[in-house]
Design goal:
Radius of gyration: 21 Å
Largest sheet: 3 strands, mixed
GO molecular function: G protein-coupled receptor activity; olfactory receptor activity
Protein name: Olfactory receptor 56A3-like
Order of helices and strands: EHHEHHHHEHHHHHH
CATH topology: Rhopdopsin 7-helix transmembrane proteins
Subcellular location: Membrane
Number of strands: 3
Pfam family, one: 7tm_4
CATH class: Mainly Alpha
Keywords: G-protein coupled receptor, Membrane, Olfaction, Receptor, Sensory transduction, Transducer, Transmembrane, Transmembrane helix
Length: 315
């Protein structure tokens, strides 16, 4: 859809069109099934984890509150992105209102930052549990989790608010066709006739500052954990700690790596198909939410027992 050439105010734009995989419509049909299954898995697994922690009194501890927060963030991210993508795939419902587009943009950026920060707090929790076990009850308390949650909210609300504001202030005078399945900041901003240098710089600087610093601190935490684990002399203690922390770190690495690949494909967009970054963007909003509750939750013995206990009560 091409807007009238005399449009000079962003308020005159009533909607955008999300234009994804139009060069290969068969890809939409092939993707819709695995994407639907991943979405159902993510929603079901995270909901189960939340309900189990809420109803099982023995799980009312700081570590499980952090898991609840991660599950809540995963649910919001999935609901923000995947239903709209599936509506495009199934019914070609590509229009999205101006306000809905920028709201989606804000939630995606804000909640991805919150998830990264939650991984950091959880890595610190594991660091204290393994490297300073005697001090763990005094450091990781309900008050600590409450303060951590407030920090996660405040930091990401503050850092990501300018992203939709800067994009919303631009003039959209010509095309309103977004070459993406989601309202990614730069995919929308480049439709404007204005200079978007500030938008690009803020997205890049903000992303590297927030997500980059989180990953560095997470990597340091697991480095200290690895060093402490290798010193454990109790039989099987090192293997158990490595198994738990290793699976956690792999998920965090996957979360960070897919973001890095997404950035690199945008930088080298002339060398890859335009559909690749779009596909990575979609998968990044559904694969980690589907895997997180399984690795963090189901592999934790206490949560597994809590789920089984609830199932027995239901039967």
């Amino acid at each position: 859809m091409i807007l009238p050439s005399n449009s000079s105010s962003p308020t005159e734009v009533s909607e955008f069109l999300l234009n994804c995989f139009v060069r290969s419509p068969s890809l939409q049909r092939w993707l819709s099934l695995p994407l639907s299954l991943l979405f159902l898995l993510a929603m079901g697994a995270n909901a189960t984890l939340l309900i189990t922690i809420r109803l099982e009194a023995s799980l009312h501890e700081p570590m499980y509150y952090l898991l609840s927060l991660l599950s809540l963030l995963d649910i919001v991210l999935c609901l923000t992105v995947i239903p709209k993508v599936l509506l495009i795939f199934w019914f070609d419902l590509r229009p999205i209102s101006f306000l809905a587009c920028f709201l989606q943009m804000y939630i995606m950026n804000c909640f991805l930052g919150m998830e990264s920060c939650t991984f950091l707090i959880m890595a610190y929790d594991r660091y204290v549990a393994i490297c300073h076990p005697l001090r763990y009850p005094a450091i990781i308390t309900d008050e600590f989790v409450a303060k951590a949650a407030l920090f996660i909210l405040a930091r990401n609300i503050f850092f990501t608010m300018p992203i939709p504001i800067l994009s919303g202030m631009l003039n959209y005078c010509h095309s309103n066709v977004v070459e993406n399945c989601i309202c990614a900041n730069l995919s929308v901003s480049k439709l404007s006739s204005d200079d978007i240098t500030v938008n690009r710089l803020y997205q890049l600087a903000g992303g590297w500052t927030v997500l980059g610093s989180d990953f560095i601190l997470i990597f340091l935490s697991y480095s200290f954990i690895l060093r402490a684990v290798l010193k454990l002399k109790a039989k099987g203690a090192a293997a158990k700690a490595l198994s738990t922390c290793g699976s956690h770190f792999i998920l965090i690495l996957f979360f960070s790596t897919i973001l890095l690949v997404l950035i690199l494909t945008h930088v080298a967009k002339k060398m890859v198909s335009p559909d690749v970054p779009i596909l990575l963007n979609i998968l990044h909003h559904v694969i980690p939410p589907a895997l997180n509750p399984i690795v963090y939750g189901v592999r934790t013995q206490e949560i597994k027992q809590g789920i089984l206990k609830l199932l027995r009560k239901g039967l």
